Fold this protein.
Amino acid sequence: MMKRSAKRVYQEDPQFLVAEASRDRSAINPHYLAHVKRCFAEGLFVSVATHDEALIDAVVALAKAQHVAPDAFEFQMLLGVCETLRARVHALGFAVRVYVPYGADWYGYSTRRLQENPRITGYILRALIKR
């Protein structure tokens, strides 16, 4: 069984939000890590979908501490976002699945993602400038 665990940027009903998450996105991380830890304990394959470097480092440390094999989970990242981080994670021996928006509504999807998380715009602009 596979479990996808994504640190999302969507607007949610306030009752489901982590306190302070709207002002400090890292406030989500302890809850996210607890979820990943439960999945590891159940032997589920976990897909960790995030570009948060601190969270990625914490998942790697958790996997090592719990002796979770590198092939028991993967990281997922969007193409063009945090490519140096993606390369670092892959160089550590972890699988990284790269997502590419495509299809009839690729533009709508991409626009919504940028509206939901304007920081992505900075990642994309930096990636374009470096090329």
Helices lie at 29-41, 53-65, 83-91, 106-116, 119-130. The longest strand covers residues 73-78. Residues 29-41 form the longest helix (13 residues). The two ends are 39 Å apart (CA to CA).
